[in-house]
Amino acid sequence: xxxxxxxxxxxxxxxxxxxxxxxxxxxxxxxxxxxxxxxxxxxxxxxxxxxxxxxxxxxxxxxxxxxxxxxxxxxxxxxxxxxxxxxxxxxxxxxxxxxxxxxxxxxxxxxxxxxxxxxxxxxxxxxxxxxxxxxxxxxxxxxxxxxxxxxxxxxxxxxxxxxxxxxxxxxxxxxxxxxxxxxxxxxxxxxxxxxxxxxxxxxxxxxxxxxxxxxxxxxxxxxxxxxxxxxxxxxxxxxxxxxxxxxxxxxxxxxxxxxxxxxxxxxxxxxxxxxxxxxxxxxxxxxxx
Length: 289
Prior knowledge:
The protein has helices spanning 44-63, 115-128, 147-152, 157-175, 179-183, 203-217; strands at residues 7-10, 14-18, 28-32, 70-74, 90-95, 186-194, 199-202, 222-231, 234-244, 258-270, 275-284. By secondary structure, it is α+β, with helices and mostly antiparallel strands. It has a six-stranded mixed sheet with strand order 7-6-11-10-9-8, with helices on one face. A five-stranded antiparallel sheet has the order 1-2-3-5-4, with helices on one face. A hairpin with a 4-residue loop joins β6 and β7 (199-202). The N and C termini lie far apart (55 Å).
């Protein structure tokens, strides 16, 4: 909605703000940025991210100076579970002895269940779980968030400017052959991928090797930007590349000749680290090359 809120934290997946009816000072809510009545309607990445943010807020409460001897992370999923507002939300609730808040337990709580009862219930729940087929873990390419999650990412002026500044810093560092400057714009677990060649360089070490090899192969390489799109998912650019092939590149021996080709590069945005998650590079050579 558009109601005023005292926002503590916000990214492209979720928002955390102060509860207007706090149980204790510091009581916060973490909500997804797209509507979901309950937890089952969330994609798994967003659901997990909400609890990651809750964990960080837990620590922040303990460090804030507010009265906080413990923290409850509480999510009421459905009206019978105590959910009053039908937009799923995670309570992050500071607690201390004598604060008056608590849970009531039914009369059967003190009875210990038998092992056979527990096994039978466990089997029912296990059978009802929808086990998703996981991507091939042996794939050379890093796994990516699903497309629906990327589409749901919210763009704000602040996020747009943040991504734009980081791309400009990356481009300036590239023009200056400043590899430490390039690494400063990349998440530590970044990946550089050239799908057409089946090549992947992982992490800062891999990205450093990618740039070192590229700049050694084409010392005078120049990217002439043709088009660019900036959004909450990252940056996509089209450029015309020129350079002299003076050393081996992608198992291709040096020719000493001037080369020209086009590239489309996608810089996926890592919202948690506020850095780029690497690059996906697609090359297009003239037909007679």
